[in-house]
Amino acid sequence: MSEDRRIALVTGGSRGIGRAVCVRLARMGMRVGINFVSRPEAAEETLRLVREAGSEGFLAPFDVADTVAVQDRIKAILDQEGRIDVLINNAGITRDGLMARMAEADWDAVLNTNLKSAFLCSKAVMRTMMKQKWGRIIHIASVVGCMGNAGQVNYAAAKAGLTGLAKSMARELASRGVTVNCIAPGFIVTDMTAALPAEVQDSLKAQIPLGMLGTPDDVAAAVAFLASEDSRYITGQTLHVNGGMFMP
Fold this sequence. Notes:
Blueprint (H helix, E strand, L loop, with lengths): L6 E4 L5 H12 L3 E6 L3 H13 L4 E5 L5 H15 L4 E4 L14 H29 L2 E6 L2 H5 L5 H21 L4 E8 L5 H4 L3 H9 L9 H11 L11 E4 L7
Parallel strand pairs: 1-2, 1-4, 2-3, 4-5, 5-6, 6-7
Helix pairs in contact: 1-2, 1-9, 3-4, 4-6
């Protein structure tokens, strides 16, 4: 199957890492579904960039933490497109705070959006991938899920959960030609990090052997590899994209 016939769905695809992934997959010739739950203007901009990259895409607005919404919308995509070959579980939120003060609602919100959503979306696409005997499922985890971080127990738990989810899914789906992997970004340049004072950015860089923050394109390049035929013999793994700040 050539890459220019593949259909990809990227959750949280309207900006940041998700947008970079959408554009990179478009450059590979894939038709890209751009999921979002808010900021439709940002999703439209991602769609424009996908088309500018030489491919086509479509908007897929739904809440990835809502079971019914996931089932209904992904079924509609399958009915419309006929298949989903690549799923990137990228959607995520933060609700930071020390555990002693963390509200249960903040724990639930992060676990639902960052971990449960990957279960829901993967379950909704896996039968189609198994039937066609080809598929790529990639979870966007985090270095925080491997190292831990004070003030982010909910986020770290959710991201660590993605690595365990990927390993178990990989064992279940390998015989059907479906690979499941994680990518764990480190400190990546985003709107939030760009707004940090210079001294704070310097402190972050000091923790990284390569001496610089990563970019969304660095993560997207890793996604492109794992989504391609070149990664056919890789499954159940976590690829760390962090400039060397964490070496398992």
